[in-house]
Structures are given as structure tokens and as C-alpha cells.
Amino acid sequence: MPDHNMLDPTRLKFGIGQSVPRAEDPILLTGKGRYTDDIALPGQVWAVMVRSPYAHGVIRGIGTETAREMPGVLGVWTGADLAAAGYGLMKCGMPLKNRDGSPLRTTHRPALATDKVRFVGDPVAFVVAETRAQAKDAAEKVELDIDSLPAVTLASAAAAPGAPQLYDDIPGNEVLDFQQGDSAKVAEAFAQAAHVTRLSLRNNRIVVCAMEPRSAIGSFEDDRYVLRVGCQGVFGLRAQMANEVLKVPKEQVRILTGNVGGSFGMKANAYPEYLCLLHAAKALGLPVKWTDERTSSFLSDQHGRDHEVDAELALDAEGRFLAVRLTSFANMGAYLSTVAPLMATANFWKNVQANYRTPLIEVITRSLLTNTSPVSAYRGAGRPEGNYFMERLIETAALEMGISALDIRRRNHIQPAEFPYAAASGSIYDGGDFTALLDRALGAADVAGFPARKAESAQRGLLRGLGVGNFLECTAPPTKEQGGIRFEADGTVTIITGTLDYGQGHWSAFAQVLHQSIGIPFHQIRLLQGDSDELIAGGGTGGSKSLMASGAAIVEAAELVVEKGREAAAWALEAAAADIEFEAHPEGGEGRFLIAGTDRGIGIMELAARLRQAPSLPEGVPATLDVTHVFDQAPQAYPNGCHIAEVEIDPETGIVTIDRYMSVNDFGVIVNPMLVAGQAHGGIAQGIGQALLESVGYGEDGQLQTGSYLDYALPRAGDMPSIGFVSHAVPATTNPLGAKGCGEAGCAGSLPAVMNALVDALSVYGIRHIDMPATPERIWQAIQAA
């Protein structure tokens, strides 16, 4: 069990528990950040992709002669050119199985389509020219001869008899028929239940809308492929590019990432453009740059969500859960991304139970290919959805059974005396305080005052509703992660780790952990994450695990620094190593090695400098205090909380205003409260966007109907309420910091809180459910229909 006594937030200005400002902010806010599009390499030329205007069709020919003769053009390549070079194909290697035990049927995607196009935006060729404008002009002259075919864009429609078939070797468009849970026992529980609640829910498709569109520069340097690109982890992307795409040893590939303007899952894996850039760079002997434009991003970036779900909850007469069952269609898009099948299968299974005692779970998911952009992880990746399904079932069951939804929650909450709790999903919850947290949220949100506020809204002709979103999500388990510590010649200390900051603020949080552990001055700590050459391990950033992985690696690496430092301090102080003690924060100062029982000592930074400057050292004395360490791994953690939203609806227009919002969260030990609150705010904003505004639309012919911000509504500042944030921490026992992860929890709480509040407000019309996004038009139509 972690020793949380060392994490006293009152001890250190820059220690764990302090709201230290992000070290990145002065750089970013003064325009000194270095995003991929900011980079200009000597001799750099430009690439522009040629994309299919059809959602489905057979490629008969691609004419490149006219484009090749355009001014400034250096080359035009098609899928045939890349195929001749012998590159590999992108595929999904997840070890998921069909219910009959057979493996997942994966697609094998070339960087450029060669036989068929399968969605609008599917790349079929690319042009490289001296300038971007020249490349764009030439790309427009590439002639496409494509025989159009019927398209299908909805997963359930792709499963229907007679649906257009995307691949000859994937019959019925089905890549996975997933089932988990004891069907017979679940069916028996439903048959014996006093009450069964059923809901059909749409988990709307989302455009990721990262601040920085995808951008990359490919070069071939010293017989190595070098890709400068925004991503979520250079170690994993290097492995994918080397092993799967380029088919070369990993040592021949280097991935470099600077600042990243958001990802949320979308930039985690390889894309077709990356191979195109590297191929052209090697062929031309020049660095080749590509930066997407926003409309092209809408077409070609991997989207999020997109599930059709029938959710069922079996309860006894007192409202206690007997079983939950999810039966879903999951839209994979035209090609399987690296993690596409995970969200609606394993992550539904792990997260639908939330913080409730649920004896039986069954998840049945058919994953289908459609003529749409591929789908991948989006903030939470199945975790918010699992909680959303359960919370909507609870509210509906309460209405149907005449029992308070709060009472149903309390009766089913796992209680502190039951930990460690073996969930039906296979998770082992190590701790929590779910009912107390719910009650604290009700108090913090002043739910007792809601009837008076509802009456006041009614006087103004408005409907007011209150929604509760209890949640618990299972983070990704921290995988092997590097915790390197390097003492630099300029007096700074560099942390080297394999997670990657794409907006989270890792620098400050990791520096706080190192400062707390061994007293290295906070302002002398730097962070290196974005160079694959520096890494020997790295799980990347995703699944709300960065602090649990890199933080634990830093703690363990710091302990190794102290071990090396004792030997070095014994030399510097002319004492025996057995007599050397280490004090992390003597009188609040930097870490110091001392001879036991005396006041003779040496600071850790001075010791590192002495070692660097020494012309020679005795045998056994380390030359540096540098450490390269790999944290093995830890179990996943279980952040949880309760969000409470109050909305007002104008019944004449369907316009929704979120008037009040409170969140009470258990993220375990919090290293930096300000950053954690910011993460929660961001997740809540994205949840509100999905609940009220955002949805990707395709026409019957597969044309994208929401291809710009004129058609796709993101939440703006005026759509956001003031967000309350309260910490109700129960430290995790499964990692050295006691942390639980926080990056995706905002979505997990906001989806059910906002939608439950909407349904509560509309219940005066007898409305029991409305799907996301609950736009003014949909709300107005629901009121009129009622």
C-alpha cells in the first residue's frame, strides 16, 4: 500500500497537492510553442492528398500525367506505386474473438486505395510540389475514374440482408460478433425479475475537432526514416510504423513530437499520410511536409462514438439490480483502426456496472464496417457510454417503479466494507466511498433548494430539470513505462518518460512528483517525452493512466537516484556508504545527503555537479546520478464521482440553458488540483457538446453533411455553465502515488447528468427519453409530439 503520509500537501510549495501553474503556459501563451506546422526544415517541400469524392466505388484508373506537368511538381504517387515498394498494410491486431471463438476479422488498409474507395475522403493519391499552393493546384488535376457503388453509413443498416458489401472477404460487413457474460444466467435473472427496464439509445458520432489539425513532416536522414508528427506516444507509433507499415527494424525509424494541440484518442496511431510523406522524402531526398485543412480533417480523421444500443436492467421489487444487458451495433467505419472494436465491447463490459453491485452482466455487440470515416477512441472510449447507459436505465426504472432514483442508487452502491470488491466484469475495485460521495454532491449542488428554483423557472415560462450522473470508470491499466532522470551539464534535471502531453500539463505534475520525492528544485526540472530515440519503454498517453504510469516510474527512479547518490556522497564526504542518509527536504530546501549523526552533508544538485567535474573517480563510485528505469505496471484504477446538472428549457423554442453544474470527484491522491479541475472542465465541456450539440451526419450516398463548423456545432463559452469542483478522495492502493486518473471522467459524469436533467425537465409532457444530441429542434419536436 502506498505511504500517503509523504504526500502532505502543506509541506512544500511545489510538492504533491499544490496548484502549481503549468510550466508550459508561459511558452504557449507567448506564442513560443512548437507545433508540427511551426516546423520548417531546410529544403522542405509540400504534399497534398487526393481524396475520393465517392463513398463507395471501384477504381478503374487514376490519371496523373497532367498533374505531373504542373509548375513546381516534384512527384505524384498512387497506391500502385506504394504497393510496388513492398510496404505493409495497417490493421487491427486486438485479440478480440467472435462468440464462436474465431478471431476478429480485420481489414488490411494500404496507405492509398488500390481496388476500391470505401468512404468520402479515402486517399487515392498524393502530390508533392515545391510549395503548398502548387501541390494543391496539381492535386486538382489528378483524374479519378471510379465506378460509384451504393453506400451504407449506419451500422444496423450494414448488418441488414442485401446491404452494400465493403469487402469480399468480410461477409455481411461484420468484423466482430462479440458476446461476454453468462447468457443463460442473465436470461434467467430477467425472467425472474420483478421489473425490467428497456431503453434504446443512440451514442452519436463525434468529430474530434482537435485544436491543431493533423500535420507531419517526413524526412530520410542518415539512412533512417524520421517522422515529425503530433501524436500520443512516440514509442508506440515508432513500433507501428516500423513493424507494420514500413517493414524495417525499429532502429531505422525515429518519431519526434513537439507541442500537440489536442488529440483525445484521434492521433494515437498511424495514418496513411505518414507513409506517403516518408516514401516521398526518401525518393526525393528532401523533407516533405503536410498539414491538413479543417474540412479535410472532418473527412479523414478518425471519428468517435457511433453506437446503437438496446440497454436492459433487471431489478427486484425493492429496486436492487439483478442483471444488466447491452445489445449493440457498433460502427467501425470503412477500415478498422488500431483500437476500433474495443469501445463497444471490452470497455462497455468493464464500465456499465459503474459503482453498483450488479451480479450479472452481458454485452452483445456486432461491429460493422460502413462507408464512413474510420472510428477510433474518443475521450473515454466506451467508459462514458457505459456509465451513461446505466444512469439512464436507473432514472427510467425509477419512473416506472415509483421509487426514488436516489434510493435506487443508494441501495445498489458497493459499500466500503465490501472492498476489495470483485465485480462481475472481472475488475477488482480496491476502494471507494460511493454513497457518501453522492450525498456530498447533493449537498454541494443545493438539491434541497431545487423545488424553489423550479417554481421560479415556471413563473418565467421555463421548464427546469435536475440530473444526477453517478459514475465510475475503469482506467486503462498502466503498462511498462520509462522513468528516466538525467542530470544535465547546465544544472537542470530532465525527466524522460514515454507518456506524451497533448494538452494535459504533464511537465508541472511530473516535476511536482520528482520534487516531492528527492527535493530537486522545481524550476530546474525539465521534461522530455517526444523523442523515440530517448526511450526504452513507453505506453503513451491514453486511458487516464499517465500519472499512475509515469508518476510511479518517476517515484521508483528517484529511489534509484538516492541509492546511487549514497555511494557518490560517501566519496564526496569521505565517509562510509553505510553512514550516508538522505533527506528529501531539509528545512524545505533541496534534497541532501548527510553523514548520520552530523551536520556534514552535500546537496543532490551539488553532488551531481561534483561527479561531472571529477577528472577520475574511484572504483564503485557512479560517474553520474542519472537513472534509466522502467516501471513494470500496475492494475487499472477506478476514478468515480457524481455530477449534478440543472437545465432550463424554453418549451417554445427547445433551447436549453445549463444553469447550474456541480461535480464531486474521487480521483485518489491529486498531485495538482488546478490541473485536475481543468481536466474535469474539459471533459465536461466535451460531454455537454455531445449531449446537446454535436453529431456527424451522412447522406444516403455517404456524403458527409457536417463537413465544417457551419454544419457541426461545438459548445462555445456561452454554452458552458460555471462548473463546481469538489474532491472527495479515497487514495488508490494499487500504485505508489495513490492516484486514480482523471482525464476522461468529465465525460463520464456529464453525459448522464445533462441528459437526465433534460428528461426530468421534459417529464411534465410524459417524455421518458430523448437521444443525444438533444438539439433545440429535437426537443421542440419531442414536445410537439407529446
TrEMBL record:
Segments forming a coiled coil: none
Domain called Aldehyde oxidase/xanthine dehydrogenase a/b hammerhead: residue spans: 30-150
InterPro entries: Ald_Oxase/Xan_DH_a/b, Ald_Oxase/xanthine_DH-like, AldOxase/xan_DH_MoCoBD1, AldOxase/xan_DH_MoCoBD2
Keywords: Molybdenum
Protein name: Xanthine dehydrogenase family protein molybdopterin-binding subunit
